[in-house]
Design a protein that fits this description.
With 267 residues, the chain is α+β, with helices and mostly antiparallel strands. The chain is 41% helix and 16% strand. The protein folds into two domains: 75 residues, Phosphorylase Kinase, domain 1, CATH 3.30.200; 182 residues, Aminoglycoside phosphotransferase (APH), C-terminal lobe (Aminoglycoside 3'-phosphotransferase, Chain: A, domain 2, Alpha-Beta Complex). The protein contains nine helices and ten strands. Keywords: Kinase, Transferase.
Length: 267
Amino acid sequence: MKQLEHFTGKDFIGDGWHLRPAGGATGEAYVAEQGKQKIFVKRNSSPFLAVLSAEGIVPKLLWTKRLENGDVITAQQWVNGRELKVQEMNNKRVSKLLAKIHQSEELLDMFKRMGNKPLIPQNIYRALETHVKHKQLAEDAVDKALTLLEKEFPGLTESSFVVCHADVHHNNWIEDERRNLFLIDWDGAQVADPALDLAPLLYEYVPGEDWGSWIEAYGAVLTNELKYRLWWYRTIQCIENVLWFRDREDPEAERWLAALEELIRYK
């Protein structure tokens, strides 16, 4: 397959455009420039980018084009923005934008029509359990956590599932020069319990004493039932990260193991 960087801007924009990589883990994103004009170009981005753009969740979609090799190229308005800092995640603007995403019926309908299957807690657990066994991960904390996770699956029904971004790291929250807030990089989005997004965001960025007000700004109530779902999905995340970093012999695995031990300490 011909790589996008081997195309010239003329292949899909017009004369005088130049491409350069925009970074990112996938290597599929580029900046296209012509004089003072600049746009963000990506290959095979999220198929519901148009809905995200229309709702103001991502920067404006300018056009979509299919190349001869079958790749779909999208162009978005370039944003001279910055990533949110860690301490800025404890902010009503963040909770309100996440609520807008989770409440979007249009996003949910489009995602379902694309044939995406909801992430059921039981299936998440079974896949993780299999992964742990395959990697032969011998950790008492992981074994205990798996036992606790299986004891009671979160009870939210599929009818209450929403479109989750599934990677709400602060680097994916962008503020432009006019203080508009966007959540970018939707390649891993899923239909799931909203706690799939809420758990990593709250545990990672929001002090425990502020959870109630953050959730209130989001439009919900921090009930015991919600607290349990947050705990369940955060525990899943911790085990997944222990596995991921151990596989790469990265010392960051120990931070996630310590976080896991703290989660199960009083359960």
